[in-house]
Amino acid sequence: MTSTTESIPDEAQSRAVRASRTVPASPEQVWQHLISREGTQALLGPGAQLGSKGESWHSDDGPHGVVRSYHPLEQIRVSWHADDDAPASLVDLQLAPDGTGTRIDLVHEHADDASLQARWDGALERLTSGMS
After folding, report:
1. pLDDT tens across 3-21, in order?
2. Residue 69 belongs to a domain with what CATH number?
3. Residue 45 belongs to what domain range?
4. Cβ atoms 22, 1 nearer than 8 A
């Protein structure tokens, strides 16, 4: 498994947090784990459940939002509110075949909190370690 992370400023002077992992599993295997209860909670937090496009999700530790895009085996995009008073931002997770494995790329757009890099690094670590 390989991983890379970086924070880069975008043209609007807000930040995008990026995290990636490559796992030795097919996109189908990664997708099934991602949408399972264990996989969703590894990514979004305890208690979180993913629904269809337009459905709300909520983590017991505060973050919540709405599923904005849901493309099986390829992509999930959710709005992200860190808490009830926080502005919305977007989290985009994409899967792509990579050799005999799958690359998982996560981008949190307009992420103004530097602690989000550690959150997403940890989330992808939890998500991918739960696949072994």
Report:
1. 444 444 444 345 899 999 9
2. 3.30.530.20
3. 2-129
4. yes
